[in-house]
Each structure stands twice: as structure tokens, then as C-alpha cells.
Design a protein that fits this description.
Layout lengths: L1 E6 L2 E8 L6 E4 L10 H7 L5 E4 L16 H14 L6 E6 L1 H12 L4 E7 L23 H12 L3 H7 L13 H10 L3 H23 L8 E5 L2 H10 L4 H18 L6 E5 L7 H4 L1 H17 L1
Parallel strand pairs: 3-4, 3-5, 5-6, 6-7, 7-8
Antiparallel strand pairs: 1-2, 2-4
């Protein structure tokens, strides 16, 4: 069920489903709506309480003039758990940038985490990607270009932005219920989304360095899910992108994912076949099964 809480004197949009079992908190990727997770959350909520939220600027969550950092986000997560009266340790699922936030939260509040699931997560060594020679792939998609676009969109009103940003849903998004599809389109036509993204992009490399330098990662159950390298390369080639650049990027990304599995001695590393970066959309069945297996494992211990 969708609802709102007052967090730090701002309205925050949250979603909750299920009312028993170990709580599961999902941290979505940069610029991503929690509505994309409907298939995964519907399945997990049958056995667990599932909580999601939109960070300030996303969806209907309010944003002020603030730096959007992982430090700020984990403070909001800690406060949200208090507001929702969740005292027991939770299972945290972090996708992409949400995975970077999840790593930060786990290091700062290890007693609040029962298990961690990283889904094709951003690495604390993400700056390694900047060293790659990817002239075609980086064309119009570097941090600089993203920041310029975000600044432009953030300065528009919603009516002006809707004339410029006319989202085309992916084939997997088109399989979601129609009300969800409508919300996903509107989600991308809100100026505050780009205000939040701009700030997150400006800070994420510094955030990653901070996270890496923090205390040792706690020895807790860790599930690391990566995308299918071969599948992503094949898709890119079909779109006319250069295979050598795709292979360089995907080999490096895969190595960063494998490094995440070394964070804990209680880790498991899996790759979702036939999946790109949005594993929750490409292979929800795989994600649901892997997460359930992880939860069953911690319940046995």
C-alpha cells in the first residue's frame, strides 16, 4: 500500500506490503521508481513485510535545496525504520545506486541488517569505469552530459518538461499493470527527479570513496546478483554499438560485481541469465527465488 510519512519535515512516499516475517527494505536505483518492483514485491510480501520508499525528489517525495549523498540517504533509512517502528534487523536489497547506499548503511548500522542483497550494484570502486577507453559508449552519456541534462530539466516546470521528456516504456515495463505504467511515465516527467539525480551524480564518486574507507564490512549473509554479460553484449551489438567497447565495459563491470562478493565470508555470487542491469524487470523469477533462498538460510540459523 502506498502512503506518506513525515521525515525530516518533508513528505516521503513509501510503499508497504505484507505484515509478517523478517522485514525487507528495498533501495531502488538512481532515477528509478519503486513501482518497477511490483512483481518482486508481490511475491516476497506473501512471506515477509516489504518496505520501499522514494528518496527526496523521486515520485511524490519532497526535496529541498540539499546535497543528495549516500550519507544523507542512510540517515533517512535509519529514521524511516524508527518511524515505522521496525526495531529488528532487516534484509536490505539495493539495486544499482541503491546498492551503494545499502553498502554504506550496512557499514554504519551493521546491527540493523540481517542480510544484504546487492543487485547489479554500483561498486565503491566505480571510478575504475572512468579509466576505460569507451569513446562511442560514453558519447552523450558521461557524467558531464548527464549533469547538464539534469540541470536543464530541473529548471522546467512539469508542463514544460512533459513536452520534452516523453518516456517510452521498455518491453518488460509494458508487462506491468496499466496503472503502474502510467505512474512510471509521470515519474520521469517531474522536475524534482532531475534535481535529485543531479545531486546524486555530483556526489556519488566522493560517496564511494567514503564508503570504501569506512570500517570493515560486517560478516553477515550477503547475496550478490549480477547481470548476464553475454546477454548485454549481444543486445548492444544488435543496437549497433562496438563490440570491443561493450566487452571492455562488461568485463570490468563483472569484475567489480565479483569483488563485492568478497565483502563478506558469508557471501553467495550469482548471475541472472538473460538479464541486463534491471534484473528485477528482466528476471523477477530469478530474483525472487534467490532472495527467498537467502531468507530461508538466515531463518534456519
Amino acid at each position: 500500500m502506498r502512503s506518506f510519512v513525515n521525515l525530516n519535515n518533508k513528505r516521503m512516499e513509501i510503499y508497504q506490503e505484507g505484515n509478517h516475517g523478517t522485514p525487507i527494505l528495498i533501495l531502488t536505483g538512481m532515477g528509478c521508481s519503486f513501482d518497477e518492483w511490483v512483481e518482486v514485491t508481490e511475491a516476497l510480501s506473501k512471506t515477509n513485510r516489504v518496505i520501499m520508499f522514494h528518496r527526496p525528489g523521486l515520485g511524490e517525495s519532497e526535496i529541498e535545496e540539499e546535497n543528495r549523498t549516500t550519507t544523507r540517504t542512510i540517515g533517512e533509512v535509519h529514521r524511516l525504520l524508527t518511524i515505522l517502528e521496525i526495531a529488528e534487523p532487516v534484509v536490505i536489497i539495493g539495486h544499482s545506486y541503491g546498492g551503494l547506499c545499502a553498502q554504506h548503511f550496512t557499514k554504519v548500522y551493521p546491527h540493523k541488517v540481517r542480510a544484504l542483497v546487492l543487485v547489479d550494484s554500483t561498486s565503491h570502486d566505480l571510478e575504475k569505469l572512468d579509466t576505460l577507453d569507451l569513446p562511442v559508449l560514453n558519447q552523450n552519456s558521461s557524467d558531464k552530459e548527464w549533469l547538464e541534462s539534469c540541470q536543464t530539466y530541473a529548471n522546467l516546470n512539469e508542463k514544460e518538461l512533459s513536452k520534452i521528456v516523453q518516456p517510452i516504456l521498455t518491453e518488460n515495463q509494458k508487462k506491468l499493470p496499466l496503472p503502474v505504467q502510467e505512474r512510471l511515465i509521470k515519474f520521469q516527467q517531474k522536475p524534482n527527479l532531475y534535481k535529485a539525480m543531479k545531486s546524486e551524480i555530483e556526489n556519488w564518486k566522493a560517496d564511494a570513496r567514503i564508503i570504501k574507507e569506512l570500517v570493515q564490512f560486517p560478516d553477515l549473509p550477503l547475496l550478490v546478483i549480477g547481470r548476464d554479460k553475454k546477454f548485454v553484449i549481444e543486445q548492444g551489438v544488435e543496437e549497433g554499438l562496438p563490440k570491443p567497447e561493450l566487452m571492455l565495459l562488461e568485463n570490468t563491470w563483472e569484475q567489480l560485481i565479483k569483488e563485492q562478493a568478497k565483502l563478506s565470508k558469508k557471501s553467495r555470487l550469482v548471475f541472472a541469465e538473460q538479464s541486463g542491469h534491471s534484473v528485477h524487470l528482466d528476471r523477477p523469477d530469478f530474483m525472487i527465488a534467490a532472495i527467498r533462498e537467502t531468507i530461508e538460510g538466515i531463518n534456519l540459523n
